[in-house]
Amino acid sequence: MNALFRLLACALLAAAALAIAPVRASAQSITCSATMTNVVFGTVNPLSSQTDANATLNYSCTNSSNSATRYATVCFSIGDGAQGGGNANPRRMQDGSGNPLYFQLWQNASRTTVWGSSFFGVNTPVDVDLTIARRATVTGSATMYGRVVNGQTTAVPGAYQDQFTGNHTAVTINESGSSPPGSCSTSILSQFPFTVTATVGSQCAVSASTLDFGTVGLLTANTDNTSALTVQCASGVAYQVGLDNGQHATGTTRRLQGPGGFVTYELYRNTGRTQRWGTTLNSDTVAGNGNGSNQALTVFGRVPGQTTPSAGTYNDTITVTVTY
Questions:
Q1: Residues 263/5, Cβ–Cβ less than 8 Å
Q2: Domain residues for 276?
């Protein structure tokens, strides 16, 4: 009589500075000041997911003329930042060792228009057309939408930042006596410094394929097969992978359960099936070092010769634990 034995192993997932110096414009009535809140991404996992965070620009513009309404196009430019290294799209943060983490700053919630600069990189600063009565002040705000991009497999765990100080930001005012000009001035009047920060955490993920011993007859000899584990850990993260004894073990003996009772089996770390795969760290686990990419590990399974139970499907569930 033939018996069907099947092991089902499931895994539990355990920007260069603005290349222009400040120039004071002459004979203008409108002055503006602005501030930007910091962009705080918090802890991110750039291996497999993007992380979004917002900031707010607040501005105040005053017409000092005693006699006339004035018009202006006010532009708010953002360059690459002190740690940007000339990167404009995407921009770049760095950790203390100079490792990069890439991100971008956008003008719109759908993140299709980069918040750029009139002086560097992507020439899309935020511009605002204003009409200001004599001796009046106009205030306003704009939201900046930030995103740490995903798929950064070489990102090293640690704290990252990009400081938008000095000429990495710029406020320019193109003033008119009739209507807003609709274009940006080349004279930098002020700045609105802010900092972008993120922390790359030590991240790992694991997945597993089914270990299928197939259809067998009498269990008079060893029945062997393999399955694959895939581990993805952040670059430089040391890890160990352990396999528990399953749901039907007696002591440390792993067992498949089916209609005829139990079938003993074992899982190993080596092709010769002499090194049992368990959960004791630094002893019977498999160690590795993350590089940000998927790393494949092989599980070597064996059903040894034993008394053959009645026909049916026999299975067990193994919990995979990644310690890092």
A1: yes
A2: 203-323
- Answer whether 83's CB lies under 8 Å from 89's CB: no
Q: Give the Cα separation of 109 and 107 in Å (integer).
A: 7
Residues 196 and 217 in one domain: no
Structure-block tokens of residue 120: 């560097």
What's the rounded Cα separation, in Å, for the pair 58 and 36? Answer: 6
CA–CA separation, 300 and 231 (whole Å): 16
| Residue 105, both tokens | 């700053």
* 69 and 177 fall within a common domain: yes
Say which amino acid occupies 220. T
DSSP states of 30-77:
EEEEEEE--EEEEEE-TTT--EEEEEEEEEEEEE--SS--EEEEEEEE
CA-to-CA distance for 281 and 301, rounded, in angstroms? 20
Residue 81: inside a domain, yes or no?
Answer: yes
d(CA 267, CA 248): 14
Confidence band, pLDDT 50/70/90 cuts, at residue 172? very high
Spatial distance between the Cα atoms of 128 and 168, rounded to a whole number of angstroms: 19
The reply to whether 167 falls in a domain is yes
- Cα separation, 125 vs 15, in Å, equals 14
pLDDT in tens, 30-61: 999 999 999 999 999 998 889 999 999 999 99
Answer yes or no: are the C-beta atoms of 146 and 53 closer than 8 Å. Answer: yes
Compute how many other C-beta atoms are within 10 angstroms of the C-beta atom of residue 120.
23
